[in-house]
Amino acid sequence: MSNERLIYLPLGGAGEIGMNAYVYGYGAPGKERLMLVDLGVAFPDMDGSPGVDLIVPDIDWLVDNVDRLDGIIITHAHEDHIGGLAHLWPQLKKPVYTRKFTAAIGRLKFEEAGLPQDAIHTVEARPAVVQIGPFAVQFMPVSHSIPESAMLVIDTPAGRVIHTADFKRDPTPIVGEGWDDAAMAALAAEGPVKAVMCDSTNVFSPLPGRSESTLAEPIAELIRAQPGMVVATTFASNVARLKTLAEAGVAADRTICLLGRAMRRMVTTAQETGVLTGFPRTVSPEEAIELPRRNLMLIVTGSQGERRAASAALSRGKYLGIELKEGDTFLFSSKTIPGNERDVLKIVNALSEKGIEIVDDNNGKYHVSGHANRPDLEAVHRLFLPDMLIPMHGEHRHLREHTRLAHEAGLASTVATNGTMLDISGDVPVVVERIQTGRVYVDGTALVGAMDGVVRDRIRMALNGMVMVTVILDEQDEPLGEAWVELMGLAATGLGDRPLAETMEQELTEFLEGAGGKVLSDDDKLDEALKRIVRQVAMEEIGKKPEVRVVISRLATE
Amino acid sequence: MSNERLIYLPLGGAGEIGMNAYVYGYGAPGKERLMLVDLGVAFPDMDGSPGVDLIVPDIDWLVDNVDRLDGIIITHAHEDHIGGLAHLWPQLKKPVYTRKFTAAIGRLKFEEAGLPQDAIHTVEARPAVVQIGPFAVQFMPVSHSIPESAMLVIDTPAGRVIHTADFKRDPTPIVGEGWDDAAMAALAAEGPVKAVMCDSTNVFSPLPGRSESTLAEPIAELIRAQPGMVVATTFASNVARLKTLAEAGVAADRTICLLGRAMRRMVTTAQETGVLTGFPRTVSPEEAIELPRRNLMLIVTGSQGERRAASAALSRGKYLGIELKEGDTFLFSSKTIPGNERDVLKIVNALSEKGIEIVDDNNGKYHVSGHANRPDLEAVHRLFLPDMLIPMHGEHRHLREHTRLAHEAGLASTVATNGTMLDISGDVPVVVERIQTGRVYVDGTALVGAMDGVVRDRIRMALNGMVMVTVILDEQDEPLGEAWVELMGLAATGLGDRPLAETMEQELTEFLEGAGGKVLSDDDKLDEALKRIVRQVAMEEIGKKPEVRVVISRLATE
Predict the structure, then answer these.
(1) Of A541, B115, B422, B437, which shows the fewest CB atoms inside 10 Å?
(2) Considering the domain boundaries, does residue A364 fall inside one?
(3) Number of structural domains in chain A
(4) What keywords are annotated for this sequence in UniProt (chains A, B) (predicted)?
(5) Measured between beta carbons, which residues in chain A are less than 8 angstroms from residue B494?
(6) Hey, of A17, A395, A458, which one would you mutate to test binding to chain B, going by the most B CBs within 10 A of its CB?
(7) What does the buried/exposed string (b/e) look like for B323-353 if buried means 16 or more CB atoms within 10 Å of the residue's CB?
(8) Cα–Cα distance between A376 and A205 in angstroms, integer?
(9) Cα distance from A501 to chain B (closest Cα, Å)?
């Protein structure tokens, strides 16, 4: 037995917020049986990943060792935990275990992707146990900003590990199971915990988290005071918030209309799985436009400024027949995620131009976070008093701060970012290996490695513009006709308003006429010379160094 | 006289934070003599303006009416007020009036751009008067986050206008003239004010602004407590903050080293113009590395995460021989401007990985804003009690909120965004014309209209990738050789790992072989057909619709 070990290996989520993917293993070194917890996505941005649809973790290591993988657990249905599953499962093809609401969401994704829905197994909450290889796993309900997040209680031959998943300590979460102090105390009383792997997202929030239930009254009061239509936006998956908003609307004599496919799907799935009950009656957009504005409330997608979501569409103009106007009120029952500020403010300003009243979260009056704040994390440290606390789900700064917190509580702790394999068999975590990890882009239907250069080329074209040169040579290496230049993303004219393409063509043609056979017969030399000329002209004429592609066509005898 | 009017026309800054440019005019309609106040830049971003160097206002209207323009005033040396001057002055060629520090900064810019430095005239503060056409202008010193911001007192035949410029009500701003209540009261007592054009940046900040002088003690205390090197970053132009930081460092037994060209230039210019005195002795990076870490303090550029600034360089590794390490402290004596969060967090996380202690503004303990907050704006409304208050410098949401504030104070007010010409001769503002305005990109050495499509093409290439097709036809419209495809920014392989370019070439060549003379002889038809095939293959193979450029070469008889 002393030859076997318990390992922990984050492949995503440790060093970033997003694309969670954590591997646990038990067995002889290099022969551990493996279990994957979560397989999420991160979201692209124009700065670093233009044109990309989604970002998933690089799971090459897991694919190389797939014969040792016994199963996949999804802790909850947020995209940063489940979003990569349909894209990467075909490389793993192992059973997926999760609770019923999350399973329903997962099966919808599998259906769309043409994958077998029966690969997703519904499990019951603790005390039910799922055996995945050497791991006996219980799903302990915790509150979060989506129904049914599950803290994993993982019993292994080397001891018990608690994987908190995303959670907050909310005894009254409106929808789904709350944080149950007594049940948690009972769990803690069952015996020693070797390690807690713990959510770090809100480690910099100094005050205890507030309950979802604190929002109902302020929101109802706000809505009652509005003279026109009320539009509220929040995350589509925050089913509890949708209920709070809808009930507040009904209390203010308003009929509810949900806009946005993702939101309707979440509500339907939550209702079908029995997670959500008592949700007020909703009407279609067609019915909504027949109602007096002061009796209508829209709940819409797009709280982060997403360009294709309902919020953005409504800020631009009429959407599904509905148009906002002066006297209406728009409530952001949400916080802007860092990086989305510009998109959100674009919507705010567009609404402002229409004369709409805009209400933000008002320092938490109309929004609470779904993650455990610093004092809540400290409470969890004290509750389980594990041998070690390993921070997960956070940028480096979050993980480091969380480690510090653990040390203050007297717990062993270390920052383990993506690719860091820890041996957690003993009393303290020991780094045993560094695995090559990274990001993979879902780009259309293709998977592209972040380091493949494809997206780097896009960024270069966007920053520098593009010049395409065509040259035709005959079999004696003599130029046929003149060089041809196409510009993309570059100023059309340079100094003295000369057309830039013509200036380039002239210089290139002059060069070709004077060039010797040594250059003309050598594709590499010719390519290099032509690129140099193009860059030189561009720098002189418009002060830029564009990307250049040269196509040299050599016509052979027929 | 009743035929003459006083007009106000924002060309930039009204509907955005940045690129301030405001026109005043007096005279018969359409024949007003004009004066321009400020000519600033806005900063590009990858989302909307990739590869662009700077954004300046579209001043076509002013250029069309340049014979009526009598002069240009610059209120202060922030880039969003002076940054466009060197780029656009060649189209205006009118005298520039500003105070000495700002004039020195302006002359440095003119020198670099090869423009005549004597076009910039240094003016004295009130009671000195500068006559610009029909406008008698006094420069009233106000406090801001750069030395020498000036509120303009503009006397016109139609009455007095106050143009606040960027300001805060700080009686003790450390460097430069403070807000002087007595002097302001004297100004207000001089007589009625027709209109106040007022900074709106901080209209959503509910508490009164705090003085720059409140920072010295907390920052000194912080620095004294640090065991290693201290690095502090703030805006290079915030000379007062640089002094506060440097003095705090000296008080903690540290020698100061300034890193970043912009910062050294600001300090030197402020010293040369007599605006800054008593700045502690600084050392070069070469001298700095010889000092014990706990006796060294760096003050560096890059508080907004700018990739080429000193902060970013230090977060990546050694910079000018200096390397940060565990035990050092990095202070952001600044606030992150919306949109820069991702770049700033990248630096924070890189520093976190090095084990550096990171300190942010700590809710204002280590940073104060340079703009008047809501209660300060209200105080200015009450001070001057103008007929009307026109909000300027702000996004639409700021302007609108500021208008609301003015209405609460019983003042006439309206939102006038860029291009809105107001007649302010009467008691209330009247919109008399809408001028075509917009944004112009400084792109390398070229000026490119935001609507020209150049940058749109860059964004498309970045989002969709690019395919370049080359086809050669002989004089009988017969294809010579096969179609040639180059991919840029696209996955190299499609379904079943087939090379995407080859699949496209195969389809294109097949099409060319089967195409009739009607298509082959018509460039437009052929271009369209080839593009369609490329897009179709791309969609099938990788699920994307790329940008396509086709080059058809027709070889003529020699």
Answers:
(1) B115
(2) no
(3) 3
(4) Exonuclease, Hydrolase, Metal-binding, Nuclease, RNA-binding, Zinc
(5) 446
(6) A458
(7) ebeeebbbbbbbbbbebbbbbbbbbbbbbbe
(8) 10
(9) 14
Within 13 Å, how many C-alpha atoms sit on residue A401's CB side? Answer: 25
B-chain CB neighbours of A539 within 8 Å are: 444
Residue length, chain A?
A: 558
Question: Is the preceding omega at residue A127 within 30 degrees of 0, hence cis?
Answer: yes
B448 CA: distance to closest CA in chain A (Å): 6
Say which amino acid occupies A16. Answer: E
Residue B508 reports pLDDT greater than 80: yes
Considering chain B, what is the average pLDDT of its residues? 96
Which CATH number belongs to the domain containing residue A266 in this structure? 3.40.50.10710
CB contact under 8 A, A349 and B486: no
* Rg over CA atoms, chain A: 29
Q: Assess contact for B366 and B212: CB atoms under 8 A.
A: no
The DSSP code sequence of B331-346 is: EE-S-PPTT-HHHHHH
Same domain, A96 and A199: yes
- Evaluate if residue B558 carries a pLDDT over 80: no
Classify residue B129 by burial, with Cβ atoms within 10 Å: 0-12, 13-18, 19+: middle
- How far apart CA B557 and CA B160 sit, in angstroms, is 76
Q: Tell me the pLDDT tens digit for each residue of A368-397.
A: 999 999 999 999 999 999 999 999 999 999
Query: Domain check: are B406 and B518 in the same one?
Result: no
Q: Which pLDDT value is given to residue B496?
A: 84
Buried b (16+ CB within 10 A) or exposed e, A268-278: ebbeebebbee
First and final CA of chain A: distance in angstroms?
A: 75
Q: What are phi and psi of A221, to 5 degrees?
A: -65, -45
What average pLDDT does this structure show over B389-413?
98
Percent of chain B with pLDDT over 90: 97
pLDDT tens string A268-283: 999 999 999 999 999 9
pLDDT interval class at A557 (50, 70, 90): low
Buried b (16+ CB within 10 A) or exposed e, B22-48: bbbbbbeeeebbbbbbbbbbbbbbbee
For residue B557, name the pLDDT band (cuts at 50, 70, 90). low
| Residue A192 lies inside a defined structural domain of this protein | yes
CA distances from B402 to A139, A285, B8, B412, B413 (A): 52, 35, 18, 12, 9
Residue entry with tokens 């599998």: A110
Chain A residue nearest residue B549, CA to CA: A486
Q: Would you list the DSSP string of A256-317?
A: EEEESHHHHHHHHHHHHTTS---PPPB--HHHHTTS-GGGEEEEES-TT--TTSHHHHHHHS
Token pair listed for B330: 């990095």
Which residues on B lie below 8 Å from A540 (Cβ)?
A: none
Instruction: Give the domain CATH number at B56.
Output: 3.60.15.10
Cα–Cα dist B226/B298, whole Å: 13
CB contact under 8 A, A349 and B549: no
The answer to whether the CB of B537 falls within 8 A of the CB of B465 is: no
Torsion of CA A187, A192, A195, A199, to 10 degrees: 30
Q: Of the candidates A395, A455, A544, which has its C-beta nearest B349's C-beta?
A: A395
CB contact under 8 Å between A491 and B547, yes or no, is no
Q: Which of A15, A47, A452 lies at the smallest CB-CB distance from B46? A: A47
Last residue of a domain, one of A311, A327, A359: A359
Q: Are residues A73 and A167 both part of a single domain?
A: yes
Collect all residues of chain B within an 8 Å Cβ-Cβ radius of residue A491. 443-444, 446, 448, 454
pLDDT single digits (tens) A112-139: 999 999 999 999 999 999 999 999 999 9
CB nearest to A549's CB, from B50, B395, B488? B488
Mean pLDDT, chain A, as a whole number?
Answer: 96
Query: In this complex, do B555 and A481 lie within 8 Å of one another by their Cβ atoms?
Result: yes
Token pair belonging to A217: 């009254």
Record: contact A489-B457, CB cut-off 8 A: yes
